[in-house]
């Protein structure tokens, strides 16, 4: 997995750095006195990732991030490696990927599809419709901060951990024996308040912190000393696919030591026999927005580092922890524990399939919240395919935003676990896409409004990439609009709704202009399109009007109309949207009892009936068009589809199936899916989702699915314990959100509800329907108030 091996880093670093340490002062022969070492608290199995050995590969390292900067911490012994990222650092520069030949050739592709000449349509689309360049720009690594330690002998009692509650990694080890032994501690965190990655090196005896430190990068860059105690790495990002690399970047580092000496040179920094050393790292690029790269990263990093360096370490740590816990502590889950929870994290993952470990599920749930907080904060970029963590210059699928499922899945848990702030970067990206997508709508489709296909990058290109079997899908922007509505629906902020209403309206306008009448019917369908990445029996994925498109459009049109009604806007436009929605083909049940993926009953003849995507079940989840009580025939067909598809899927594929089985109300099957997701085939030792390779969406899908098993919020209806598995006989969940500004706590015992509390965070009274099994209770909660529910004589009632 590693593009830079440990040996390569060690050799490159040693040659440049070890020569700088020749003038080290000699230690006195008498052993220095030892300061007491505060014992590390016993790891909380639901809050801590911990290991008895350093990371040997990237997917064993521990992630820290502040939404903009990220680092993977390896916890090495003689060498510590921090692999670094900054969320705007992509290859290339501003560009427009729309093919100038697309508009003229689009009518013929449409006609070929309507004639059933799908392979001819694919050939023409591949030649004339696809984006130029065909590939989008890859997310980049900045490189590595590498620390070498030369004086560690006979190391023992090694331990490293990531505390999710404080967002601090700690590596501790003992060097030497008897009176000459010493305890060395390294702590790393990424501060959101101060926009720096902080590393503290300490020991329990004075004068024992000695290290050589440098910055290594695969990028075209220059490293220079930055004063007597700092380094500055500057360069320009790479070119890819004919797009010139023009994005400048800077990484700036400063060492603040107590005691000893610090010397900086053009190759790195030497820390000599300090009592303690704090290393501050920050980074920036020239990116201001997708069409402006005029920022000065050297100046930005200098200002950031000067401000952070003015704070003592204790203040940096306290401010970081307080800001992290402001978000992280809003929600708490307890599923109980077993003896398996006492094992190191990597051993728990290896044992996940045969041995039940409910605290591992809780840890995974908490880790998903941790990753979202650390990779998506206001003012930054949305979490991409790998969040913000990537060590390669050419990562899998460019580590950008795939918007035919993966980006959406990243944000499935956000509203549920009260991390609405983390959605703001996604909102910002949608505002950008509504601009670039308007050009694509005009220049490729001859339409108004805006649209996006199945991928985008930091330059917000929306032309169809990769090839027609994957890229010629016009629904990416429409699906993302669902997240705008969800953000409104959970918070009911009309100011926000007014802000994003033009995006909803523009997305709907595009489809009013491009939907076509299906020959021989009055139905309106998309053309060209596809059911994401799945080939139908006629040899390609290209088709007209697949089920997922119709389902997404039903949602898009409904939320656009609803938003207009709430805001009192555009009555004539709303009428057009409503009329178009009524002409979308309905969901259909095929000959095998399945929910049809296409207009034609092709499912059982498709080459991959066990395909990883379950696109046509969008109507079940994340939408709510198909429900157990509202559409029983269609829900049975959806279940049949899941049975046919099977449970052998990618990490994110399991994440989607987990949510679907929860919506079906089958807690034991959902739990079986979760155990597959947590097993060693789909989860790496550091709990990153194994697609494989790593994609972060499975982590987020798993977190959302666990909430769906315990609480489902649809409109103003709340269902308690809808898919509680037998394996979770006792537990509690505190602080989750429900639609309409609600917060919910609940606890259960012996598989039965013990109590629930529903709070109204809004300024007006709110009425919900709360369901437990077949029991339904209407609950009106005053503004800022709370109502409790429990079982009375075996029935749900107000307490």
Topology readout:
Elements (H helix, E strand, L loop, with lengths): L5 H12 L30 E4 L10 E4 L3 E5 L5 E8 L15 H13 L3 H11 L14 E6 L7 E8 L4 E8 L6 E10 L4 E8 L5 E8 L3 E6 L4 E7 L11 E11 L2 E4 L4 E6 L1 E10 L11 H13 L3 H16 L3 E3 L10 H6 L7 H18 L25 E2 L3 H5 L13 H22 L9 E2 L11 H4 L4 H16 L2 H21 L1 E2 L6 E2 L3 E2 L11 E2 L3 H21 L3 H12 L49 H14 L5 H13 L3 H12 L18 H14 E4 L2 E4 L10 E8 L3 E8 L2 E9 L5 E7 L2 E7 L4 E7 L2 E4 L1
Helix pairs in contact: 2-3, 7-18, 9-11, 9-12, 11-12, 11-13, 12-13, 13-14, 16-17, 16-18, 17-18
Structural class: alpha+beta
Q: How are the strands ordered across the major sheet?
A: 1-6-7-8-9-16-13-12-11
Overall 3D geometry?
Answer: globular
Distance between the termini: 54 Å
Low-confidence stretches: 1-29
* Radius of gyration computed on alpha carbons: 27 Å
Number of helical runs? 18
InterPro entries: 6-hairpin_glycosidase_sf, 6hp_glycosidase-like_sf, AFCA-like_C, Alpha-L-fucosidase, GH95_cat, GH95_N_dom, TAT_signal
Signal peptide: 1-28
GO molecular function: alpha-L-fucosidase activity
Domain Glycosyl hydrolase family 95 N-terminal: 49-289
Explained architecture:
With 799 residues, this protein is α+β, with helices and mostly antiparallel strands. The protein is built from 18 helices and 32 strands. Helix 16 runs parallel beside helix 18. Mean pLDDT is 95; it is low at 1-29.
């Amino acid at each position: 997995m590693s593009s830079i091996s440990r040996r390569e880093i060690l050799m490159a670093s040693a040659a440049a750095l070890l020569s700088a340490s020749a003038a080290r002062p000699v230690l006195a022969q008498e052993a220095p006195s030892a300061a007491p070492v505060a014992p590390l608290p016993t790891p909380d199995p639901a809050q801590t990732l911990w290991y008895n050995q350093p990371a040997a590969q990237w997917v064993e390292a521990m992630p820290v991030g502040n939404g903009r900067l990220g680092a993977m911490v390896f916890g090495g012994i003689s060498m510590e490696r921090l692999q670094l990222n900054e969320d705007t650092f992509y290859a290339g520069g501003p560009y427009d990927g729309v093919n100038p030949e697309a508009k003229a050739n689009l009518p013929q592709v449409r006609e070929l599809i309507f004639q059933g000449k799908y392979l001819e349509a694919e050939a023409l689309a591949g030649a004339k419709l696809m984006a130029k360049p065909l590939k989008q720009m890859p997310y980049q690594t900045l490189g590595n901060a590498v620390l070498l330690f030369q004086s560690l002998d006979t190391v023992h009692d090694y331990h490293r951990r990531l505390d999710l509650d404080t967002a601090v990694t700690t590596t501790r080890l003992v060097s030497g024996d008897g009176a000459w032994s010493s305890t060395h501690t390294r702590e790393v965190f990424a501060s959101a308040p101060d926009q720096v990655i902080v590393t503290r090196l300490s020991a329990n005896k004075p004068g024992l912190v000695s290290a050589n430190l440098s910055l290594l990068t695969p990028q075209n860059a220059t490293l220079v000393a930055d004063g007597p105690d700092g380094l500055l790495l500057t360069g320009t990002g790479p070119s890819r696919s004919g797009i010139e690399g023009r994005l400048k970047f800077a990484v700036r580092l400063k060492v603040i030591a107590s005691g000893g000496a610090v010397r900086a040179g053009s190759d790195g920094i030497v820390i000599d026999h300090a009592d303690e050393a704090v290393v501050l790292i920050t980074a920036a690029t020239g990116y201001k927005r997708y069409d402006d790269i005029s920022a000065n990263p050297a100046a930005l990093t200098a200002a950031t580092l000067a401000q952070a360096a003015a704070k003592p370490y204790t203040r940096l740590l306290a401010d970081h922890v307080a800001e992290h816990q402001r978000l992280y502590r809003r929600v708490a889950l307890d599923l109980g524990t077993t003896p398996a929870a006492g094992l190191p994290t990597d051993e728990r993952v290896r044992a996940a399939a045969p041995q039940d470990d409910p605290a591992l599920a809780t840890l995974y749930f908490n880790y998903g919240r941790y990753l979202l907080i650390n990779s998506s904060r206001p003012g930054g970029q949305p979490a991409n395919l790998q969040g913000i963590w990537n060590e390669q210059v050419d990562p899998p699928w460019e580590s950008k935003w795939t918007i035919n499922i993966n980006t959406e899945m990243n944000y499935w848990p956000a509203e549920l676990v009260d991390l609405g702030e983390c959605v703001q970067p996604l909102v910002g990206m949608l505002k950008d896409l509504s601009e670039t997508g308007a050009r694509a709508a005009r220049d490729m489709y001859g339409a108004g409004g805006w649209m996006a296909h199945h991928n985008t990058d930091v330059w917000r290109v929306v032309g169809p990439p990769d090839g027609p079997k994957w890229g010629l899908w016009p629904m990416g922007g429409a699906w993302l609009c669902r997240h705008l509505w969800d953000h409104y629906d959970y918070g009911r902020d009309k100011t926000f709704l007014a802000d994003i209403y033009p995006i909803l309206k523009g997305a709907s306008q595009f489809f009013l202009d491009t939907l076509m009448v299906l020959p021989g019917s009055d139905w309106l369908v998309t053309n060209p399109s596809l059911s994401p990445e799945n080939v139908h029996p006629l040899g390609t994925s290209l088709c007209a009007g697949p089920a997922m498109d119709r389902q997404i459009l039903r949602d898009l049109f409904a939320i656009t109309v609803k938003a207009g009604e709430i805001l009192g806007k555009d009555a004539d436009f709303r009428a057009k949207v409503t009329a178009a929605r009524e002409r979308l083909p309905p969901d259909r049940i095929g000959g095998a009892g399945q929910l049809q993926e296409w207009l034609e009953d092709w499912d059982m003849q498709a080459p991959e009936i066990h395909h990883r995507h379950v696109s046509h079940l969008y109507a079940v989840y994340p939408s709510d068009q198909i429900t157990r009580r509202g559409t029983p025939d269609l829900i049975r067909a959806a279940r049949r589809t899941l049975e046919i598809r099977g449970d052998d899927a990618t990490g994110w594929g399991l994440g989607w199936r987990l949510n679907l089985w929860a919506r079906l109300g089958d807690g034991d099957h959902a739990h079986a899916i979760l155990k597959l997701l947590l097993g060693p085939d789909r989860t790496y030792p550091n709990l990153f989702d194994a697609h494989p390779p790593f994609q972060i969406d499975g982590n987020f899908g798993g977190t959302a699915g666990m909430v769906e098993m315990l609480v489902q919020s649809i409109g103003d209806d709340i269902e308690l314990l809808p898919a509680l598995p037998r394996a979770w006989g006792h537990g509690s969940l505190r602080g989750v959100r429900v639609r309409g500004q609600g917060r919910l706590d609940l606890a259960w015992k012996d598989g039965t509800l013990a109590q629930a509390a529903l709070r109204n965070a809004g300024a007006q009274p709110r009425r919900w329907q709360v369901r437990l099994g077949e029991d339904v209770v209407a609950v009106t909660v005053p503004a800022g108030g709370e109502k409790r529910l429990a079982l009375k004589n075996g029935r749900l009632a107000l307490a």
